[in-house]
Amino acid sequence: MTGNIINFYAGGNTAQGFTNLFDSSLQGLDRIYILKGGPGTGKSSLIRTIGNKMVKAGYNIWFIHCASDNDSLDGLIVPELKIGIVDGTAPHVIEPQLPGAVEQYVNLGAAWDADQLGDRRQEIEQLNGRIKQAYERAYAGFAETLRIHDDWEKIYIANMNYAAADELTLEYEQIIFGIKQQDKQSRVDRRFLGAATPRGAVDFVPNLTEGLAKRYFIKGRAGSGKSTFLKKLAASAIERGFDVEIYHCGFDSNSLDMVILRELSVAIFDSTAPHEYFPDRDTDEIIDMYERCITPGTDELHADALRDVKERYAASMKQSVVFLAEAKSCHDELENIYVQAMDFGIVDQIQKKIQQEIARMLIVSD
Which domain of life is it from (predicted)? Predict the structure, then answer.
């Protein structure tokens, strides 16, 4: 029987710059392989190959995706075996807590021809400079987009019924938890629901919520209390001892977009653009924050102002994604330089060595 794959992001291109939540996914692991090496050295391929082999062997895994390259992986976690393999190069540098005992560095740079790369030093420096500049422009653009989003929120915040929002929260705390409580400390996993990528907004909501008995789709507007609602439900779950997957917004890392309680088989998520979904199961349910918490007629009364802010927001977001795509294009050129200098036979040997070490750990655990 094959295992299941859960896909998510642990790093994001946000309005706060690159935001790293990797440490949360690495908690509790007994062995972490930290891959070092430049672009194009085979880190993502190694992660994917070993991950697919683990799935075929019947293990459930987590694939951590790269927000800056839609086709690349940044990490693999095998929860049952407490093993992880992660890309430890910038910008998601992994700081080891117990080097040697838990974390093992894997140097893929051993497979490159340093002389060949030295001959192309000027090209590499120029491309790195262009990549850095493109990211700076993207992050500045996202910060401006967030300021526009704040203007959008203000319209609804001014028309918010906070008593109704509190009542709604208490209502769903009772529906979801009732009197259920667990006599243990909860585990909290912080991730991103989706990401701003070179191809635009991407998320894994269908995969993350697959197999859950109950899904709550939160509808509403910017500033209608969706994130606060989720934060309160997450806090209640932690207080009651339930494990919680907390998914931050891939655009504004201070905001939440989803909470999953697998022990209760429940997901509650912001189901508005750019991660807009609609119920397709009998057990799915909509929670309408606009209907419950915002003054009726707000959309109509502020239609002109809302139209203007939406247009400014969309234009700013689009331009920021263009800079991400520019960074990706330069990164592809950089990768090509490194690929030409690589001996992938050595990378294959490194991959097999990791697989053999994992196999030995399995024998010991049995």
Answer: Bacteria
Quickly count: other Cβ atoms within 10 Å of residue 356's Cβ: 10
Spatial separation of the C-alpha atoms in residues 203 and 206, rounded to whole Å: 9
Measure CA 129 to chain center. 26
Phi, psi of 287 (to 5 degrees): -115, 110
365: pLDDT strictly greater than 70 = no
The C-alpha atoms of residue 85 and residue 102 are separated, in whole angstroms, by 12
Confidence tier at 100 by pLDDT (50, 70, 90) = confident
Report in angstroms the alpha-carbon separations of 142 from 8, 9, 36, 151, 364: 21, 18, 29, 14, 49
Take residue 289 and report the two structure tokens written for it: 């924050």
Tens digits of residue pLDDT in 142-201: 999 999 999 999 999 999 999 999 999 999 999 999 999 999 999 999 999 999 999 999
- Cβ neighbours of residue 174 closer than 8 Å, sequence gap 6 or more: none
Annotate 146-162 with DSSP letters as a single string: HHHHHHHHHHHHTTB-H
Q: For strands 31-36 and 83-87, give the pairing.
A: parallel
CB contact at 8 A, 9 and 20: no
Q: Which residues of the chain form beta strands (DSSP E)?
A: 5-9, 11-14, 17-20, 31-36, 61-65, 73-78, 83-87, 103-107, 188-192, 194-197, 200-203, 214-219, 244-248, 256-261, 266-270, 285-288
Question: From CA 84, how far away is CA 31, in angstroms rounded?
Answer: 6
| Rounded Cα–Cα distance for residues 115 and 113 (Å) | 6
Six-digit token string for 66: 């790269």
d(CA 328, CA 138): 12
First-residue to last-residue Cα distance in the chain: 19
Q: Write out pLDDT tens, residues 283-299.
A: 999 999 999 999 999 99
Predicted confidence at residue 366, as pLDDT, reads: 55
179, amino acid identity: I
